[in-house]
Each structure stands twice: as C-alpha cells, then as structure tokens.
C-alpha cells in the first residue's frame, strides 16, 4: 500500500535539550487509512503533527512526503497548500472574516480555482459540516464548535492527500462529532488520502483504522482497530 508519510527516527528538543518533546518517532501513514494518535497531555502529539505539517523542523530525523524529502519539493508553499491540510488544536480562523471567507481563504493563492468555484466549494463544505446558516457570520461571533467545523472545512477545501487534525472534536457534542468523523472518512476514501488525528476522544479512536499510543515522546503501541478490521 502507498505510504504517503514516512517518519524516521524523529527527535525534537526544546530549550537547548531541557525539554525532550519527541524521542525517536518512526511511523508510516498509508493511503486510505485514518490514524488516531492518543496519549496523555504533554506526550508530544501536537509536536509530531506540527513537524509532519512542516510548521516546525525536527532536531534530527527525517520525514518523507509521498516518497520525497521536503528539500526536493519545488515550491514549499504550493506543496503545503495542495498536499497537507491542518486543523489546529486551537482553531485559527481569522476573526474579521466571515466563515465562508475563512474557508475560501485557503484557496486564494490557487490560480487554477476561479472566484465562483472558490465560493461553491466553500459553501458545499459548510453545508456538509452543518454550518451553512453561519456562512456570512464573522468567525469571532460564532460558537466554539462552529468555529471548529469551519476550521475543518478550511483544511479540506484543497482536497489535501494528508490531513493532520489536532483535537478536531475537542469542543463538539457527540452527534456533531460523528458527523465530522463521517465526513473525514468520506474524504479519505475520495482522495485515497490519509488522516492523522491527535485526540483524547474515544469516538475518534472508534472510527480510526489504526490507534497509535504515545508516552513521553515515544510510540508505545500501534494497533489496527479490531472494530474496523471486521468491516
Ligand atoms: N514551543 C515549545 N517550547 C518548549 N516546550 C514545548 C513547546 N511546545 C511544546 N513543548 C513541550 O513539549 C511537550 C509536548 O507538547 P505537545 O504540545 O506536543 O503535547 P500534546 O501531546 O499535544 O499535549 P495535549 O494533549 O495537552 O495537547 C510538552 O512537555 C510541552 O510543554
Ligand atoms: Mg496537543
């Protein structure tokens, strides 16, 4: 099966080595699979997502993207835009833009997408997320869960092969969370992509294909979800 992300012996230390956030992570993310990344607060989940998402660089170790090293990529910004979608732990919608404008903003630098298509894609995703009625509200003036869903719509609008989601269901009720997880499953199937979700939420673990557990910057187990294998 196609490996979209290969992480090899990744280390990340902060404050001149005082804080060891990642202690030798090796991990492969394959096409068509959803991975749940679990573990106690401070074990390194967000750090790992940030490194895979190219938002920060490792102290040592390597990450391959669809078989390529980052320094082989021609334009880092285009690569980021088209290959990786990121849902932040603390959703970073732009408060002075409306929800629809926030989603459209992820497509702005893509000259292949017209203004009309940008709008249509944003509206379709907001609808699927159940927040179309808030499309014209400013992000500062909607609820936490609505913002969270807006952030997911924004991350998906470019159809990225790799979606990295940091606690995407953190502030969300169980019914809405199931709707989001269904949408993420559809996305993985339609794009033959992969999703890595850092989470404390057992609903996420339930629908993941693989459950990865971390402790003190290390992966302590990685198991296929028996519930998903049966399907
Ligand atoms: N920029 C930073 N500078 C220094 N230390 C950091 C930095 N970012 C994270 N850390 C530390 O690295 C460790 C891992 O943090 P990380 O945010 O990856 O944890 P996490 O597993 O995502 O936790 P949570 O479940 O609370 O979100 C923690 O001890 C944290 O305090
Ligand atoms: Mg975190």
Order of helices and strands: EEEHEEHEHHHEHEHEEH
Could you name the CATH homologous superfamily?
Answer: P-loop containing nucleotide triphosphate hydrolases
Shape call: globular
Number of helices: 8
Radius of gyration: 17 Å
What would you say this structure looks like, in words?
The chain has 231 residues and is α/β, with parallel strands linked by helices. The chain has a single domain (3-229), classed as Rossmann fold, CATH 3.40.50.300. Helices cover 34% and strands 28% of the residues. It contains eight helices and ten strands. Strands 6-7-8-3-9-10 form a six-stranded mixed sheet, with helices on both faces. A hairpin with a 2-residue loop joins strand 4 and strand 5 (68-69). It starts with a strand and ends with a helix. The model has no long low-confidence stretch (mean pLDDT 92). Adenosine-5'-triphosphate binds at residues 14-15, 19, 21, 39, 41-47, 89.
Features:
231 residues, alpha/beta, Rossmann fold, four-stranded antiparallel sheet, 8 helices, 10 strands, 34% helix, binds adenosine-5'-triphosphate, binds magnesium ion
